[in-house]
Write a structure and sequence with these properties.
By secondary structure, this protein is mostly helical. Among the domains are: 105 residues; 70 residues, Zinc/RING finger domain, C3HC4 (zinc finger) (Herpes Virus-1), CATH 3.30.40. The chain contains ten helices and two strands; from the N terminus they run αααααααββααα. It has a two-stranded antiparallel ribbon. A hairpin with a 5-residue loop joins strand 1 and strand 2. The longest helix is centred in the middle third of the chain and has 37 residues. The chain is globular.
Length: 313
C-alpha cells in the first residue's frame, strides 16, 4: 500500500517483536562470516588468558600497587558509564558515598590519630558492609522471584522486577567491594599511626594489658570514668581487645593478624554463628567481582582494539 513506510510498521510492533526482527536482520547481515567470528572468539580467549596471567603475577609480586590501581579503576570506571548513560540515581549515591568515605579516610590518616577515629572508621565501613550485603541479597531474591514467575501473582511486569533485582544486586556488590578496599587502606594507616608494629611485623612500642591496640582506649573502665563499655575478645596470641574493634579489624578491614604482634588470627574462633560465616563467603564473592568490574572493561577494550586493527567487525 502506497504511503506506508517500513519505519511505521516497526512503530506498530511490540517491543518483543521489534527486538526479534532486529535480531533476524543481524543474523542476515553476518551470514557467511563464520571464519571471521571464529577468529574474533580466539582473540577474545587468548586476550583473557594472557590478561589473567599478567594480573595474577602483578598481584603476587606487587600486591600494594595492584590493589591501588584496581581500587582507582573500581571508583572511576562506573563513573564514566554513569555519566555517559545518564544514570543520575547511581551518580548521586556514588557522590554521597565518596564524600563521606573521603572524610573518614582523612580522619584515619591524620597524625596524631584521635582516640575516637578507629571506632568511627570501623562503624562506617561495617555499616556499608551490612547495607551492601542486605541490598545484594534482596536483589538476588528479586531476580529469583522473577525467574520463578512469582511477579505474576503481584501483577508486576517481569522487566520491572528483573531491573530492580539487577540494580540492587549491582549496588550491593559494588559498594561492598569499595567499602572493603577503603577499609583496608584505613586499617593500614591506623596501624602504622598507632605504631604498635612496623612493616616488618615487629612491635615498635610496648602495649599495656589494659589498652586496646585498635582504638587505643582502655579495655575496662570504672563506672565514673569516661571510656568504652563493651565486651572483650582474646586472640590466640593472648592479646585482648574490644570485641567490636577486633571484629571490625578482622572482618571489615580484612586483617587476619593481631593488631599488636601481627600474629596470624584464627577467624573461625571469631565466628559465633552462621551469619558471620556467610559474611566471609560474601567477602570472597566481592573479591571476585573486583576483577569483573575493574579489569573486564579494559580487557574488552583491548579486544576491540585488536579486532579493529585487524579489520574485524
Amino acid at each position: 500500500m502506497a504511503g506506508v513506510h517500513p519505519q511505521d510498521d516497526l512503530l506498530k510492533m511490540s517491543h518483543r517483536e521489534n527486538w526479534r526482527m532486529q535480531h533476524e536482520r543481524l543474523h542476515v547481515k553476518h551470514r557467511g562470516h563464520e571464519a571471521m567470528h571464529a577468529e574474533m572468539v580466539l582473540i577474545l580467549i587468548a586476550t583473557l588468558v594472557v590478561a589473567q596471567i599478567v594480573l595474577v603475577q602483578w598481584k603476587q609480586r606487587h600486591h600494594r600497587s595492584y590493589n591501588l590501581v584496581t581500587l582507582v579503576q573500581m571508583w572511576v570506571v562506573p563513573l564514566y558509564f554513569t555519566i555517559k548513560l545518564y544514570w543520575w540515581r547511581f551518580l548521586s549515591m556514588w557522590g554521597m558515598f565518596s564524600v563521606i568515605t573521603s572524610y573518614v579516610i582523612f580522619r584515619a590518616t591524620r597524625k596524631p590519630l584521635s582516640c575516637r577515629t578507629p571506632r568511627m572508621v570501623y562503624k562506617w565501613f561495617l555499616l556499608i558492609y551490612k547495607l551492601s550485603y542486605a541490598v545484594g541479597v534482596l536483589g538476588y531474591l528479586a531476580i529469583m522471584f522473577t525467574m520463578f514467575g512469582f511477579n505474576v501473582f503481584f501483577r508486576i511486569k517481569a522487566e520491572d522486577s528483573m531491573d530492580v533485582g539487577v540494580i540492587m544486586l549491582f549496588y550491593g556488590l559494588y559498594y561492598g567491594v569499595m567499602g572493603r578496599d577503603f577499609a583496608e587502606i584505613c586499617s593500614d594507616y591506623m596501624a602504622s599511626t598507632i605504631g604498635y608494629y612496623n612493616r616488618g611485623g615487629i612491635p615498635s612500642r610496648s602495649l599495656t594489658g589494659d589498652i586496646c591496640a585498635v582504638c587505643g582506649q582502655r579495655i575496662l573502665v570504672e563506672v565514673e570514668e569516661e571510656g568504652i563499655i563493651e565486651d572483650t575478645f582474646q586472640l590466640s596470641c593472648g592479646h585482648i581487645f574490644h570485641e567490636f574493634c577486633i571484629r571490625g579489624w578482622c572482618i571489615v578491614g580484612k586483617k587476619q593478624t593481631c593488631p599488636y604482634c601481627n600474629e596470624k588470627v584464627d577467624l573461625k574462633r571469631m565466628m559465633n554463628n552462621p551469619w558471620e560465616k556467610t559474611h566471609v563467603l560474601y567477602g570472597q564473592l566481592l573479591d571476585w567481582l573486583r576483577y569483573l568490574v575493574a579489569w573486564q572493561p579494559i580487557i574488552i577494550g583491548i579486544v576491540h582494539g585488536i579486532n579493529f586493527s585487524l579489520g574485524l567487525e
